[in-house]
């Protein structure tokens, strides 16, 4: 279907059925196409686009093989589409090097924005390797799965140290 927006200056094309993933589509308007005001357009117009063929992880913190990560890290995962929160159970894990699950606090929810943000319930061990496992059962709201299983490894800070200048030594 076609509808008009922005004071009848913007034509919106809405397909009647879901588009197939991983497909190139072309929308064309010929010179016999009429505007909202029933006037022929001056020249033909064509627009091509590709639909996504699967969900992609586009950014993460920590990044793969990061070192000196805080023991109270806030993990941020950014995907290229809105996340189906019902697909997360059994498909996302935060673990130590021995595959022991780490208890989490999910303190920010922005699944519609394609973000998953969480942090460990307790401080992580220093100078230790941790992993975030994302399985391809994670889906977007259109039902597309994560392209493939992904594991992000990182190492926590080697020692907990606060640097600063002593302003008053109380002696």
Question: Nutshell version of this structure?
Answer:
This protein has 171 residues and is mainly β. Helix content is 0%, strand content 38%.
Name the descriptors.
12 strands, 171 residues, 4-stranded antiparallel β-sheet, 0% helix, mainly beta, 4-stranded mixed β-sheet
Account of the 3D structure:
- The mean pLDDT is 90.
- The chain is mainly beta.
- 14% of the residues are buried.
- A four-stranded antiparallel beta sheet has the order 5-7-10-9, with no helix packed on it. The chain has a four-stranded mixed beta sheet with strand order 6-12-11-8, with no helix packed on it. Strands 1-2 form a two-stranded antiparallel ribbon.
- The chain has no helices and twelve strands.
- The protein has strands spanning 2-5, 10-13, 24-29, 45-50, 57-61, 66-69, 75-79, 92-96, 104-110, 115-120, 129-134, 150-156.
- Helix content is 0%, strand content 38%.
Write the layout of secondary structure elements.
Elements: E1 2-5, E2 10-13, E3 24-29, E4 45-50, E5 57-61, E6 66-69, E7 75-79, E8 92-96, E9 104-110, E10 115-120, E11 129-134, E12 150-156
Parallel strand pairs: 6-12
Antiparallel strand pairs: 1-2, 3-4, 5-7, 7-10, 8-11, 9-10, 11-12
Task: Classify the beta-strand content into a percent band.
Answer: 35-45%
Poorly predicted parts: none
Q: How helix-rich are the residues, as a percent range?
A: under 10%
Main sheet makeup: 4 strands, antiparallel
Q: Quick one: overall form?
A: elongated
In what order do the strands lie side by side in the largest sheet? 5-7-10-9
Topology pattern, helix = H, strand = E:
EEEEEEEEEEEE
Strands, total number: 12
**Tally of helical runs:** 0
Radius of gyration, taken over Cα atoms and rounded to an integer in Å = 24 Å
Which oligomeric form is depicted? single chain
* Class by alpha and beta content: mainly beta
Compute the average pLDDT: 90
Cα distance spanning the termini: 79 Å
């Amino acid at each position: 279907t076609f509808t008009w927006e922005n004071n009848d200056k913007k034509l919106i094309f809405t397909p009647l059925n879901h588009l197939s993933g991983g497909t190139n589509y072309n929308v064309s308007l010929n010179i016999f196409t009429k505007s909202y005001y029933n006037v022929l357009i001056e020249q033909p117009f064509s627009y091509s686009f590709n639909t996504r063929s699967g969900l992609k992880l586009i950014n993460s913190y920590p990044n793969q093989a990061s070192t000196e990560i805080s023991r109270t890290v806030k993990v941020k995962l950014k995907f290229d589409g809105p996340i189906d929160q019902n697909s997360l159970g059994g498909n996302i894990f935060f673990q130590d090097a021995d595959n022991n699950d780490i208890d989490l606090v999910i303190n920010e929810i922005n699944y519609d924005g394609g973000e998953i943000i969480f942090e460990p319930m307790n401080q992580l061990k220093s100078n230790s390797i941790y992993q975030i496992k994302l399985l391809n059962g994670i889906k977007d709201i259109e039902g597309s799965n994560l392209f493939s299983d992904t594991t992000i490894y990182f190492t926590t800070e080697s020692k907990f140290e606060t640097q600063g200048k002593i302003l008053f030594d109380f002696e």
